[in-house]
Amino acid sequence: MYIEGFEHGYYDGLFNIETHLFSNNYFSNIMTEFSKAVINCIVDWGKRSAACNGSTGCLEQSARQLRECLDAAFPESKKIELESDKVNYMLSSVFFLANRLSKATEGLAEFDRVMNSTEKIGKTSLEEKENRELHTKFQKELDDILGRYF
Questions:
Q1: Which helix H or strand E contains 138, and what residues bound it?
Q2: Distance (Å, rounded) from C-alpha 84 to C-alpha 35?
């Protein structure tokens, strides 16, 4: 950008103000596109996950694709002019929450599998030996799910 008289220092303050306004406007546009990209990642993940029909392998693949999409959507920290702990906190929070949601969904699918394989829990008395063993197995599987996904 050429401004007559700039070479003499007359417009240094004005140019700095213009540059600052331009960079803030540019940063705002990047963030607007960033929020749209993150939402699109989550929408795509939701559609893929719904199509998995409870398959944990499919849900794991969908979660990997979500993380890849979020990695692509997040700007590199070097590209953010206002790099600060607050910006890093905001971006990492979005990534963390999306990742936790995908892991929790995998855990729910595992829970569904365990519930479907456990026939008598809740229907009969736990005093019978078979039911106690079934209940113990259920508790162990539930603890495993909680440990892996939650």
A1: helix 129-149
A2: 18
